[in-house]
Design goal:
single chain; alpha+beta; 5-stranded mixed β-sheet; 491 residues; 26% strand; globular; 16 helices; 7-stranded mixed β-sheet; 32% helix
Amino acid sequence: MANEKDVHACTLDKIISLCKRRGFVYQASEIYGGQAGAWDYGPLGVEFKRNIQNAWWHYMTQLHDDVVGLDSAIFQHHKTWEASGHVAHFSDPMIDCLECQARHRADKLIEDYCAANNVKTEKPVDTMTHEEMKAFIDANIDCPACGSKNRKYTDVREFNLMFKTHLGPVANEASLIYLRPETCQGIFTDFKNIVQSNRMKIPFGVAQVGKSFRNEIIFKNFIFRTCEFEQMEMEYFCKPGTDEEIFENWRKERWNFYLKYGIAEKNLNWHHHDKLAHYAKDAYDIQYNFPIGFEEIEGIHNRTDFDLSQHTLVSKKDMSYMDQDDGNKSYTPYVIETSAGLNRNFLMFLCEGYEEQNVGKDGKDDYRTVLHLHPKLAPITVAVLPLMKKDGLAEKAKEIQHQLKEDFVTDYDQSGTVGKRYRRQDEVGTPFCVTVDYDTIREQKDDGSPNPDFGTVTVRFRDSMEQERVKLTELVGFLHNAIRNYKPVVR
């Protein structure tokens, strides 16, 4: 029998249910049976995702004087992807079951089998040859799709992940174009423009948030792996020889970002890449302990001078930098990259914040579902609740909500008991509820004496469920101060 902790633990199924029930995420094209690998972000989801993006942007650009922003085009000239190596190298190992024609990603097939059966391979999966992968699968793995024990598979071959199309009315080699598989190449092709127009000096970084597209072989684990996703990337250009120190500095910076916004350090892990990408000198992933195990949420890579050198070679345009602070020496900068998945961050913060908390008293169980989201990330910052719908309380609550809208994302709820409304707000992570009661609007008590609580409201805190009486004239400042001094819940 499952124990109480197991029963009330966060699972991916619970997160998926919450997301649909409360308007965070819906299956794309659900009325037509759904589109694999695609998801729609609902009313609360778009606010939550935007807040995560804003927090990242604030941390990377506003808090770093040497990092500027860019929004490059999704459509780049097809030679961009030849220069970057994506046309030749951006692929996954694919294998098909000959009995049911199901297509599998060979490396993930092996990794999932090993995890489920506590088996270790002789060498890391990402260093296996195609022949070694095929031999292991033939010897051990029944097809997960049809369950066939015959283990009849095709050879392992590479499957390019880029979506290919044509721009314009004629489909030929000249009109060939790709949906970008990553946002960073636009930063590299615009490197000289940024240096010249903004008088940037090495070292400096360029940050960008945008959509990328990958024709994944498999989609699974909700929004964790999809064909359409958003990246939050920063490319930091530096002088060769300084790259290793700067690489370590950005590793620390990115780790601290997650701690700042409430991720418990015990749920984070560093994964060092043994097999490096063709452009990399060194690479680490920050992993988070999802309900499915530790998985990547961000990569920090030392890309050397590969990208700028390749674009110089293919475009015939000089992408070097003249360093006026070093005797006008010219060199091709090295690049330290931080690349975080916005969608994966979205899922991570939901999983980290989710709790089924027993708030019962006197030995009685009473569970509430609560999202302990940082107030700067929560989709709703303040909910305004009238104690009753009558006697002018609803009108006053609406007036207060209108005043708070200038500073916060607000919600108004008058349906059901106040306790039930608190629970609804807890479930979507609203950090503060403002309750408007009779003391708010009555200047005198029933005996005619002055009411000391006139013009005040009750502010209820999501995490502690404690309440505090606050003057309306001080409410905005009180909430700003509470956000500024928020301490993440550690569980």
